[in-house]
Automatic annotation (TrEMBL):
EC number of the protein: 3.6.3.36
Transport recorded as keyword: yes
Domain of life of the native organism: Bacteria
Domain (ABC transporter) ranges: 4-225
EC category name: hydrolase
Record key words, sorted: ATP-binding, Hydrolase, Nucleotide-binding, Transport
Name this protein carries in UniProt: Taurine import ATP-binding protein TauB
Family: Belongs to the ABC transporter superfamily.
An MF annotation (GO) of this entry: ATP hydrolysis activity
Lineage: Bacteria, Pseudomonadati, Pseudomonadota, Alphaproteobacteria, Rhodobacterales
Amino acid sequence: DAVITVRGLHKVYGNSTVALDNIDLSFMRGHLTSLLGPSGCGKTTLLKIIAGLLKPTSGEVLVNGKPVRGPGPERAFVFQDFALMPWATVLRNAAFGLEVRGAPKAEREDRARHYINEVGLAGFEDKYPHELSGGMRQRVGLARALAVDADVLLMDEPFSAVDEQTRRKFQEDLIRLREVENKTFILVTHSIEEAVYLSDRIVLLSPRPGRVADIMEPDIDRNVD
Ligand code: ADP
Ligand code: ADP
C-alpha cells in the first residue's frame, strides 16, 4: 500500500521559476524509490515538499491516505550535511530525535544503541563526530532518523560526500534496512548507475519544469546478505 501519495503538486519559486509541474506519485511501503534527473529539475524541491519542509504552491501530500501540511513523525529527512551536534557523542546524536520528543533517557538510549548497531557503528557510541569519517557521520545521521521510528526516510544525495568503498557499504545497509525494518526510502540522486543498483523504482524527472518523465522498475539480483 502507498505510504506517501502526492497529488497535483506544483511548485513555483518567486513569480516565475516553475520547479515542479503537476506531479502525481505514490510511494509503496518497504520500497526504495530514487528521484533521478538533471540538476535543477526539482528533485530536492520534491523531497522537501514530501518531508513537509517546503510548502507546495498547489497540490497535496498524503501520508497513509491522510493529507498533511508540514513535517510529521512518520517522515524523517536525513540532511546532506548530517546536521550532527559536534559537542555530543554518537550515542547522544543518535538519540537526539527522541530527546526532542521527550522520550525517557533509558528508552531513547536503548533505541539509539539498537540503530547504531544496525548501521554498523557498534563500539563508537562514545566518540564525537570529528573522530569519525564522513561515511560514519552519515551513518549516525541515518541512525538518528531510524531511532525516531519514522516509516519514511528521505535522503538528498546521500552518497555524494563519501568514497566509493564507503558508498557501496552504505548502499547495502539501505537495501538491508529496507528489507529487515520494512522502511520506505526516497532518495535523490543524479547517478543513474546508483539508482539502478539500489531502487525498486526510479522516478525520472524531466529538466525544468520537473515533470514525471518516466517510472522504471529495475529488476536486478543484488545478492546482499
Ligand atoms: P534539483 O534538486 O533537481 O537540482 P532543485 O529542487 O534544487 O533541483 O531546484 C529546482 C529549480 O528550482 C532550480 O531551477 C532551482 O534553481 C530552483 N530553486 C530551488 N530552490 C529555490 C529557491 N529557494 N528560490 C528560487 N529558486 C529555487
Ligand atoms: P543541491 O544541488 O544540493 O540540490 P543547491 O546548491 O541547488 O542544492 O541549493 C542549495 C540551497 O539553495 C537549497 O536550499 C535551494 O533551495 C536553494 N536554492 C537553489 N537554487 C536557488 C535559487 N535560484 N534561488 C534561491 N535559492 C536557491
